[in-house]
Each structure stands twice: as C-alpha cells, then as structure tokens.
Amino acid sequence: MPRVAEVAGAGLGGLAVATALARHGWRVRVHERASELRMFGAGIWLWENGLRSLRLIGAEDQAVAGAQRIKEWAVVDQHGSELFRRSFTDEDKMMLPVRADLYQALIDAARGAGVEIVTDSAVAGAEPDGVLVLADGSRLPADLVVAADGAHSRIREALQLTDKISYLREGYIRLLVPKLPGDEEAVITEAWHGSRRLLYCPSSAEQHYVAFSCLMDDRRGRSVPVDKESWRETFPTFTGVIDRIGGDGRWDRGMTVRCRAWSEGKVVLVGDAAHAQAPNLAQGANMTFTNAVSLAAAVSGAQDVPSALRTWEARERALTDHVQRWSHGYGWMVSMWPENLADSRSKFLQLVTGIPWVDRQLNRAARHIPVGDRS
C-alpha cells in the first residue's frame, strides 16, 4: 500500500512538494481553502536552483515555455550610475515567467503525477501523530502532513512551532504591464532612489513584470492603484513603463518567519509557513522548490518519518536561513540607509559587490544543486 500524505495549501510550495511525493510513490491529497486555483498577476525569478528543482518534478519545460531568458541583472542608483551587475550563463540560468504560467505548470505536473486537489477545503490545524484537521471538524490520518498554508500558517501556530514573526519597514507592489516594441528584453533593471526601488523585469512575449518597493510610511508610494505621478517623479527614466500600469496590483508588507523547528512528529512545514522572507533576493520560491524535492527524497526512503524530517531539516535549513538573512540585509541597504547619504551607499555597494566572498554569499542558493539532481 502506498503511504499517504495530506497537504494543506495549493500554492507553489504545496503543489511542488505534493508532486515530488507523488513521484516517489505516495498517495497525495492537497487541500485548498479557496474555491478555485488562482495566482495573482506578477512575474517570478527562477534561478538555476529553482529550475533544477522544477525539472525534477516534471514542471520546468511548461513553466518556462513562454518565459524570458535573462542575460543580466543590473542595479543602478538615483543618478543612473551602475552599482552592481550580475550575468547569467547556460550553467547558471535565470528565467522569468509570468507567475500564473508557473502555477499552471505546477497544477498540471501535480495532476499528472496523480495528486488529488480539493478546493473549498479549509484547514484548522494538525496533530503530531499525523492527523490533518479540517475546519469542518474532519480528521484525516496520514503518514505525513505537510503545512504549506503560508506565512500565517494555522498548522504552525496550532503546533506552536513559531519562533519569531517580524514585519519589515518596507513593502512591495507587484504587477504586470504590456510589452511594447523596443522594450529591453533580456536585462533586469533595479533602480534605487532614497528608500524607494523600482524593478523592471522582462517576462514574456506580451508582458513585463514591474515591482515597486518603499517604506510603510510612504503613503503615496504604497497606494493601490499605483500613484503614477509620484513614481514618475522618483524614476523619470521609467515614465514609459509607469504610464502602462493599470488599476491592478497589490501591496504586500515585507515579513520574515522563523521557526523553532520545521517539523513536529509527522507534520512538516514548507515554504512561507517555515521561512517566509522579504523578496529582495527573489529566492523564496526557489528555496521552497529545492526543499520540497529534498523533503520527498528524505521521507520516501525512511521507515521513521519524524526522524527523517529532523535529518532533512538539519541538512537544508542552514542554506535557507542564510538566504533569509541576506535578503533582509539587502532590503536594509535601501530602507534604513539615510537618504542624505545616498551617494555613500552607492560607493559602498559598488565596493562590496566586487568582493568574491560577497558574490559567493549572494549566489550561494542559486548555485546549490538540489537533492536528486544528477544532471
């Protein structure tokens, strides 16, 4: 008889781990509280580690079929001076699909692997001996319960696995704009001006992903619909892009989640439930994918699931914690640095990003080989 896994949450992480488990022979059911599977409109950075992980669960080709292949990521300051540039190669790729395309690829991969996805199925909590508790009172026993129910995880709170939740001083608006002839198609540009940032990301043949970042007390900066006049004043060279913004988009406040442990008995946390982080290094989803494939491999060869989960965490957590810290530090450079010292920030960033040790730390996750990757 195949072992049974119940997964709470049909987001990117829940579908990835469900598919990975199913491909190892598990019988998997995913519970989604919403009435339909839907992803908000934005793009997503897929680093090499994320692409390799998606390949292992059979979702890579579809996820990137319409995506833009990125050649470089450039950071510029308020004067247009280059602060940092990172190139990508065939062995160290960056692809930038529309998030909905990635999500559909994960849905199709999950169903293709035999995963059952149940909508309108809200979760209330879980018990360490391997029981998923639904909001309607149903109790579903399993060999493994996966909490992929987001940064505000009910399961994590029910098991008191939270160590610390930190709300950051900055937040983000993410959306898509139409692509026009003559647009840059292969270079991500991140522009800094004071405590504001604008991120321009080529994403597909029809759309570009654009993100805005500012402090919580910047009311014009965080307004939705986007205050185009305010952002044009800050980034006049991006006026042509800003003018294309419609009435969509959403504001998300940055936050980090740290747990005292990623598992309790037969219940395990994945994705934002375990390690929500600011999107400054764009590695949150990629780390979720690498952890998902390694989790499936760890429990599939083990008789003692709780012990396998502890071993898996001991192996994977150090890198995840590292990415979380460096992502937070990257955001601090923008949100906490005094605006009257912006020029010194530019010089500092130009200096430190040229240090090989810093390059290794910034790219440690991207160059990580996921468990099971033999390519």
From TrEMBL:
<dbReference type="InterPro" id="IPR002938">
    <property type="entry name" value="FAD-bd"/>
</dbReference>
<keyword id="KW-0560">Oxidoreductase</keyword>
<dbReference type="GO" id="GO:0004497">
    <property type="term" value="F:monooxygenase activity"/>
</dbReference>
<protein>
    <submittedName>
        <fullName>FAD-dependent monooxygenase</fullName>
    </submittedName>
</protein>
<dbReference type="InterPro" id="IPR050493">
    <property type="entry name" value="FAD-dep_Monooxygenase_BioMet"/>
</dbReference>
<keyword id="KW-0503">Monooxygenase</keyword>
<dbReference type="Pfam" id="PF01494">
    <property type="entry name" value="FAD_binding_3"/>
</dbReference>
<feature type="domain" description="FAD-binding">
    <location>
        <begin position="5"/>
        <end position="319"/>
    </location>
</feature>
